[in-house]
Each structure stands twice: as structure tokens, then as C-alpha cells.
Amino acid sequence: TQTETRRDYTPYGTTRGTTPTGWVDNRAYLGQPTDQNLDLLGARTYEPATGRFLQRDPILETDPTQLGGYTYTGNDPINASDPSGLCMYTDGDLCISAENARGKTVTNGSGHDTTTGDMTCLNVACERARGASHPGLIVTIPPPTIGGLPVYGGGDFEQYIPDIIEMAQKAAIDPQLLLANYMIESASCDGLAAVCAPLQEVQAHATDDWWDLLEAWYVPLLGHRMGQGDHASIGTANMDRTTYEQTQDNTANGPRPELAGHSWFDLIGNPKLSIAAMAHRLEDLQSGLQFNLDTTYSRNELIRLGYRSTWSSMMEVATGSPMNPGSVANTQMFDVQYARAGRWLSYYNQGQL
């Protein structure tokens, strides 16, 4: 017969009592791997001695006790645990908010309201399934929205995560910012790649009055920004000609290497070029915010505002002006996508892709 050997832990995971010798594996607190007094709780490393994670939470949680980013279980390990490193409360493959977990949300049969923004996937399979259910278009199934804007979308981004990480390093910007921005901008072509490029060609070359008739159905169908000719937003970067050419040559040493030799029209059907153009545009916007901000919005939120709107809009909000309602809604959508981008980068770094 075998003798049972037990290890006991305090609520925060430090060893209680004498640690038995000859333990058969490296599993410890919550049954997760441990190494040199640090526990690997899913996506993050946890230090039981301090009761805190060593990496910031990749998921935006609205619970006030979790907003700091490093707190373990909202400082309440007796009533909650976080073996995934992503959230305190789970329902199968989903993270859910504290309010949802406590039954304050109207349920839909699965136990929770899966149409709200507080439902967060814990793994790649869940993310892919949820992204497929909500492709970010208004062609078939309307996706969840914030201020009328899709929360999900950009399903084609997964294969470009290595390119996004590489370009973020070259541009010295936050890769999570670049991925979130790409998710939002590429969503307009998500699922319609076969027709997106030809229609963007028409849009970029349109100079006649008949464009007004065309965009009456084209823009609602694909979700593209309006505009024709040089004012059209093309590629998965959704960039107009003036912005692209400014971004291409905005250095003292001539055209940026990734954009040199490529015209604005080359953005169409070329996601990698769009990623490079987007990264350098975000870099240029970031360079304008090297001062103490007079706003509650983060630098990344302001950079996103500058990308979707204008440089002057970004600077006005950065120096204390209020954000207009449309930009507020877009910023809320960006915050959701930024958290989602953090999860995808975690999946990539863990080798799940």
C-alpha cells in the first residue's frame, strides 16, 4: 500500500507547516507548476510570499480590487482563486465579471449573459469560436456593440501576430496597442477578403459623382469609412493617401525601409504593408505625446484617437479638452480590444498558436 502525502497552504499559497520531502512532481498551490518559490498560474507568474502576480493582468477587469493589474483574487483568496492568471471567476472557457458570477445578470441558459462585454475567453479555442460568432460586420449577425461599434472583429489578425510583434519592436511602440488597433481596422474586411480588395480599388480610384450612390450600400455593407480617391481609407490599415505618404517619409533619413518603394495603392490586399504603415503612424502619434497629459485618458487611448481621427483631436484631448461622444464610444471599444489583444499575445507567447 502507498502512504498518502499532503501539503498544506495558506490562502495566498505559502506553505503551511513542514514541507514533505520526495514530492513526485513540481505541482504546488492550486495544482499548478512551481519553481523557486514562484508559481505559474496559467498566463502569469505568481509570488505567494507577496500575494501578487509579477506580470500585469492582460485582461481589463472592471472590479475595483483588480484594476491595479497585479492583485491576486481581489485580495480575497479565501473566497476566490485564479489558476488561469486571467480572472477570478470562470464559466467553462469563459472569464466572467464578479457581478455576473454573483448572479446579478440575466442568464441565457448557460448561466451567464454571453452577449455582454464582461465575458472573456480563457483559451484560443474559445476566442476563435467567439470571434467566428461575432465577425465584426453588420452583414449577417449583428455583433455586440459599444456605442453602436462592434466589440469583436478582425478575425484574420491571428496569422499576422509575429509581424505585428516585429513591427512594434521596430517602431518602439506597445505591441498590444498595435494588435488592438489592427483588430479594429481590419474588421471591416473580415470575412469578405475576396471582395474587399476589389471594392477598395474602386473606392481609391473613384472621382465621379456616382460614388455617392455606390457608398450608400458599400459603406454599410463593409463598414468602411467614407471617402473616394485620395481621401479613401484603404488596406487593412484603413489609411488615406496623405496620411500614408506623411508616414512613409516622416524621418530625417528618407523613406522608412518597410514603406520605401511602396505606393499608397499597394496597401490594398497587402496586410503586412498595412501593418508596417500602421505601426509607423502609431509611432508618429506617440512622438507627439512626450509631455505630462492633462486628461484621464491613457497615452494608448489618445494614440488610438489620433489614428481614427486626427492629430489635432488627439492633442486637444491630451491638453484637457473633452472627447466627443463618438470618440468616447470608439475609445470604449478600443479598451475592449486592447484587453483582447493582450490575451492573444499571451497565447502566442505560451506557444498556443
Briefly summarize what is shown.
This protein is an alpha+beta fold and 353 residues long.
What are its keywords?
alpha+beta, 4-stranded antiparallel sheet, 11 strands, elongated
Distance between the termini: 43 Å
* Assembly state of the chains shown: single chain
Order of strands, widest sheet: 3-4-5-6
| Total count of strands | 11
Beta-strand content estimate: 5-15%
Biggest sheet features: 4 strands, antiparallel
Which series of helices and strands comes N to C? Answer: EEEEEEEEHEHEEHHHHHHHHH
User: Which stretches of 5+ consecutive residues score pLDDT under 50?
Assistant: 98-118, 133-154, 219-225
Radius of gyration over alpha carbons?
A: 23 Å
- Give the overall form: elongated
Number of helices: 11
Instruction: Please state the average pLDDT score.
Output: 74
Structural class, please?
alpha+beta
Structure, described:
The chain is of the alpha+beta class and 353 residues long. Helix content is 37%, strand content 8%. The chain is built from 11 helices and 11 strands. It has helices spanning 98-101, 124-133, 161-171, 175-186, 193-205, 211-222, 241-248, 271-287, 299-308, 311-318, 325-349; strands spanning 8-9, 15-16, 34-35, 38-41, 44-47, 52-53, 89-91, 94-96, 120-121, 145-146, 149-150. Strands 3-4-5-6 form a 4-stranded antiparallel sheet, with no helix packed on it. A 3-stranded antiparallel sheet has the order 7-8-9. A two-stranded antiparallel ribbon has the order 1-2. A hairpin with a 4-residue loop joins strand 5 and strand 6 (52-53). Helix 3 runs parallel beside helix 8 and helix 9 (299-308) packs antiparallel against helix 10. It starts with 7 loop residues before the first strand and ends with a helix. Mean pLDDT is 74; it is low at 98-118, 133-154 and 219-225.
